[in-house]
TrEMBL record:
Keywords: Membrane, Transmembrane, Transmembrane helix. The keyword Transmembrane applies. The keyword Membrane applies. This is Putative ABC transporter-like protein. The chain crosses the membrane at residues 12-33, 53-73, 102-125, 137-161, 173-198, 218-238. It comes from metagenome.
């Protein structure tokens, strides 16, 4: 079943177009960010600063994976392909789990690829010199986690929101429009503002990347708000997927 979902994913033109554009944009952003901070003394002097730069440059890929996850679910419902799939695999939770597995594979592949593209850009075409060896694995690992979180969130949104455009809009508006406004209103309450899911996700990955790059292991607890919300929303998504009219 997982192989079937992966086959459908890799044969979509939108997968290749989106991945190519996102990787190219990440490389350009990495180069631009490198040039911007390259004139600052010790701006990227170690793996901590490197992870921060890679995460900022690689933002297009997590968003792309999330949008692709939404597209896969909604397009199957729109075209009636889900009905055909259920004829061969009638257990709906298993079908949804296979889709989640395909998203995980896509997130790992593209997350690793975009981190490598950004790292190579910084190493050879940037103005910062060679990338520290200790930063490679940390930057790749943290970027994979970022992409994975966004991808699974996209899959859940694709099941819960009944329209493709509405799902994509919701996924983009919440982290980039709604949460910044709410955080601004909660300026005097940083603890509450830190519970905003995507805001906490970004902060946690930033802190986790810094900790791992510096040789520590702190920062995992910051993933809790996003993880709890994703688990709760995922449970609702499973329930809704059971009752979807394929």
């Amino acid at each position: 079943m997982l192989r079937f979902e992966l086959y459908k994913l890799v044969t979509l033109r939108s997968t290749w177009v989106g991945a190519t554009l996102a990787l190219a944009l990440s490389g350009v952003l990495a180069l631009l960010l490198t040039k911007v901070v390259g004139g600052q003394t010790d701006a990227v002097s170690g793996p901590v600063e490197l992870v921060q730069l890679i995460l900022r440059a690689s933002l297009p890929v997590p968003v792309t994976v999330a949008v692709l996850a939404i597209t896969v679910v909604r397009s199957e419902l729109r075209d009636g392909m889900l009905r055909l799939g259920l004829l061969g695999f009638p257990v709906r939770p298993r079908v949804l789990a296979s889709k989640a597995g395909a998203v995980v594979v896509l997130a790992v592949v593209l997350g690793s690829a975009t981190a490598c593209v950004a790292l190579i850009t910084v190493s050879f075409w940037g103005s910062l010199g060679a990338v520290p060896a200790s930063g490679w694995l940390v930057a790749i690992g943290v970027q994979v986690l970022v992409t994975l979180g966004w991808g699974l969130a996209g899959l859940v949104v694709g099941v819960l929101v009944p329209h493709l455009g509405g799902g994509v809009a919701a996924l983009l508006l919440v982290p980039y429009a709604v949460e910044p406004v709410v955080a601004g209103l909660l300026t005097g309450q940083p603890l509450v503002a830190g519970l905003l899911p995507f805001r906490s996700l970004t902060s946690a990955y930033d802190a986790l990347g810094q900790s791992l790059a510096a040789g520590g292991s702190h920062g995992w607890s910051g993933l809790l708000p996003f993880t709890v919300l994703l688990a709760v929303a995922g449970a609702f998504a499973v329930h809704r997927f059971r009752g979807l009219d394929a």
